[in-house]
Amino acid sequence: MAVVAAMVLALAACGGEETNGLQDASAAEVGTRSVEALNSAGSVHVVGTAQDPSAEGSTRYDLVLSGSSARGTITSGSVVTEIVKVADDTYTKGSRAYYESIGEGDAADLLADKWVRLPAEDAEQYRLFTIEGFAMAIGEYVAALDGKVTTEDLAGRQAVAAGSAEGTRLWAANTGDPVPLRLDMLNGEQGRMEFSDYGAKVSITAPAGAVDLASLS
Q1: 3-state DSSP percent of the chain in helix, strand and coil, to 5
Q2: pTM for the complete prediction?
Q3: Domains along the chain?
Q4: Which of 6, 66, 159, 160 is the most buried (most CB within 10 A)?
């Protein structure tokens, strides 16, 4: 009975889940494995903020990524832009305030609050809005991870954390696939990304009735 009781207590202490071994990895390996796991994910929900180098303040991203497709919103100040990316086709929908903020106020009468299919040169700014693109982007930050790897509870999920001298800090899942859960850049001053809903069933399709911007030029 004593042995059984000890086993029950041990399972309760670890939540009944086996770890993926990330707690025994080096900081560099935590970074590498988390990027690989993200790259292999079928889908993920990403919410993040980043300092906007072209304006004062920050930009907020709320995106669902699935393979080479994405949908969500980008908020800069009080301006919200909706985006849908389906493989090589990118669509955005912005208000009059959005077009005025990018110096295209004259286009607002025609395009405000309508879905617009962007020409390739305009869509280029959204090229990383894919799972592979986000994996590549965070890979540049986590490449410098070093030092001690610690175990933590992050919003009820077992995680490991590792940081770098530059202020990057990564939290990755310590059970199941070692996917990234949170990334702070420059101690959070440069931005933060939160990752959730891995593998959720996602359907991303092109919006109906979109204006083809290339056909207007």
Answers
A1: 30, 35, 35
A2: 0.87
A3: 21-209 (2.50.20.20)
A4: 160
